[in-house]
Amino acid sequence: MNTPGGHDPAVLDAARDWLAQDPDPDTREELAALVAAAESGDAAASRDLADRFAGRLAFGTAGLRGELGAGPMRMNRVLVAQAAAGLAAYLRSAAGPDRNPVVVVGYDGRRNSDVFARDSAEIFAGADLDAILLPRLLPTPVLAFAVRALGADAGVMVTASHNPPDDNGYKVYLGGDDDGAQIVPPADAEIHDRIARIAASVPVSEIPRSLAFRTAPEELVDAYVAATAAVAPAPAGATGLDWVYTAMHGVGAETFLRAVAEAGYPAPVPVAEQIDPDGTFPTVAFPNPEEPGAMDLAFATARDVGAELVIANDPDADRLAVAIPDASVEGGWRRLTGNQTGLLLGWRAARLAASAADRPEGASLACSLVSSPGLEAVAHHYGLGFRATLTGFKWIARAPGLVYGFEEALGYLVNPETVRDKDGISAAIAILGLAGEARGEGRTLADLLDEFDRTFGFFASDQISVRVEDVSIITGIMAALRADPPARIGETAVTGIDDLIAGFDDLPAGDVLRIWLEDGRRFIVRPSGTEPKLKLYLDVRGDSAADAQERLAALAAGARELLDALS
Predict the structure, then answer these.
(1) What is the distance between the alpha carbons of residues 364 and 422, in angstroms, rounded to a whole number?
(2) Half-sphere exposure of residue 253: CA atoms within 13 angstroms, side-chain side
(3) What is the pLDDT of residues 68-83, one digit of tens each?
(4) Side by side, which strands form the sheet with 320-325?
(5) d(Cα 119, Cα 113) in Å, to the nearest integer?
(6) What per-residue confidence (pLDDT) applies to 61?
(7) 534 and 477 Cβ atoms separated by less than 8 Å
(8) What are phi and psi of 102, to 5 degrees?
(9) Which of 51, 40, 147, 135 minimizes the C-alpha distance to 420?
(10) Is residue 3 pLDDT above 60, yes or no?
(11) From 46, 120, 161, 364, the catalytic residue
């Protein structure tokens, strides 16, 4: 019940309990000021407190992710300590009494990433786990590599990837039978339950800690660099390649540039303003290469030096963006879509798998179900298997016989025997290899895209994203679509709808609607797993590039009409 002043005594009590166990002076000060303001009748402070204590961040896409700040609905040292203790309890239970689980912890350059990582290492060590901390801030793919290379039972990467500057996260991988992939159900729910039990019964100050954790040797990073360089040693055509690289203020540059040199490629021209880690991301409104404007500095640098190619990583370097010269667009540079890059890399992987003397039985390509159906055409062309999965590399990495996987959100897995997750560094090496080979033949990546279309068909894709302040809007739209499914999208009749809410065929349950239209067009609707967005994915196949674009434009117009009617 709220008091006449507007604050809820139960929320205030919860905030005071949180204050009593918070080891961070910054979040203590923040929360104390909110409590005092709410007690004095400040309605905005009361609403803020109610939001922070409305529940707790739950394990979602491979772990935790949220805005930094005090309270259980924010990322902070209390929440991270409880998460580490809960994960330790889960690992201890899974390992049994006769073995000490091994867990490795990495972190990127975001605010408090190093603090959260060290807290976790101390708590893992305090739980008698063999805890290993990576030697410095490093890309997420290095942590994913380390889980397998060290034979660890689990790995934790402190990162919020390409989220806004005020966010951070806690990404969890499992070793053993999970082979270094991100967590999936039921492990996520079991870890969440362990965390909740600890949060309800043990103050953070009483969670055991120890300084008896190890620091991983530099040789571990060397091994990742060597394995990544081996993905695509530089062909002769790469000599003299002029290209630009941006790390988007993240942690990718050092590791990536070492792999570039070891693979034999010429060094890029760096985007100087974005090459060093900076968790405030001062030159971009949103540190995601997909976002409008994020690559403007890279394009400006490319124009200045007359580059042939631009490569960008997101801040934790698990994603890759590629751009090529295009005189038909403003500014003269065009970023390839995730589907375009993914199909080029899939074509490369299929050729390698099909020609391998020791081709593995059941070798397959995989992509998320919202990614281009062009990958299935590639797989069939080369006699390979194909798997469509739910979105997220926690599912793609588990596809049987996997030799390559991708998702349209700039994620690519090109070396599954080394890293069972998306890896923007190894994917960039593979792209450099394709660019170098094409260059040696007097061609470009644009020519390869044209050849792909002529070989496999004219596929075109688009995405419509709707960002909301209130996630209940998304819930309402999904409910309305299920209650009254559309009979048409624009002028085209719907022929079938696959609702994945309880699973479909061999796909596990997911909040996804896949809508099929009579001319083969495909329209998929799903809430984002990491942001307050509703995402609509549109895919068509045409008789020519122009025909595919015409079909896509019509589908996009129909999708927007449907969305307007439901909003």
Answers:
(1) 16
(2) 20
(3) 999 999 999 999 999 9
(4) 269-270, 243-246, 309-313, 320-325, 333-335
(5) 10
(6) 58
(7) yes
(8) -105, 130
(9) 147
(10) no
(11) 161
DSSP H helical ranges for 382-444 = 393-396, 424-440
Q: SS3 breakdown of the chain: % helix, strand, coil, rounded to 5?
A: 40, 20, 40
Phi–psi pair at 181, nearest 5 degrees = -90, 165
Q: How far apart are the C-alpha atoms of 465 and 524, rounded to whole Å?
A: 12
Which tokens is 301 given? 């640098």
Give dist(CA 315, CA 292) in Å, integer: 16
The H-or-E segment that residue 493 falls in is: strand 492-499
Residue 243 token pair: 């290209």
User: What's the rounded mean pLDDT across residues 222-249?
Assistant: 98
Mean pLDDT of all residues in 223-234 = 98
Rg, the chain, Cα only: 24
161 in catalytic set: yes
Cα-to-chain-centroid distance, residue 394 = 10
For residue 102, the 8-state DSSP code is: E
Q: Angle at the Cα of 139 (from 136 to 144), degrees rounded to 5?
A: 105
Read off the pLDDT of residues 398-457 as tens digits, 9 standing for 90 and up: 999 999 999 999 999 999 999 999 999 999 999 999 999 999 999 999 999 999 999 999
* Cα atoms found within 13 Å of the Cα of residue 140, Cβ hemisphere only: 32
Two tokens at 283?
């030159």
Helix (H, G, I), strand (E, B) or coil at 90: helix
pLDDT tens digits, 5-28: 456 899 999 999 999 999 999 999
- Phi/psi for 37 (5° steps) reads -65, -40
**Is cis: bond before 4, omega within 30 of 0?**
no
Q: Is the dihedral of CA 126, 132, 134, 139 positive or negative?
A: negative
Helices (H), ranges, 367-411 = 374-381, 393-396
Q: Which residues on neighbouring strands pair with residue 105, listed in sequence order?
A: 133, 156
Q: What angle do CA 134, 207, 139 make, to 5 degrees?
A: 20
| Plot region of 442 (φ>0 → left; ψ -120 to 50 → alpha; else → beta) | left
Residue 19 is inside which H or E element, if any? Answer: helix 9-21
Please give the Cα distance from 400 to 395 (Å, whole number): 10
CA distance 406 to 417: 15
Per the structure block, which two tokens stand in for 127?
Answer: 């739980």
Q: What is the band of 4 on the pLDDT scale with cuts at 50, 70, 90?
A: very low
Q: Which amino acid is at 495?
A: T
Furthest CA-CA distance within the chain: 77
**Separation between Cα atoms, residue 376 and residue 358, nearest integer Å:** 22
Does the global pTM surpass 0.85? yes
Residue pair 396/388 in contact (Cβ under 8 Å)? The answer is no
Please determine, for residue 227, whether its predicted confidence score (pLDDT) is greater than 60.
yes
Position 253 scores a pLDDT of 98
| Residue 140 to residue 123: CA distance in whole angstroms | 21
Residues 18, 70: Cα–Cα separation, whole Å: 8
Q: Interhelix angle for 140-149 vs 424-440, to 10°? A: 110
pLDDT at 510: 87
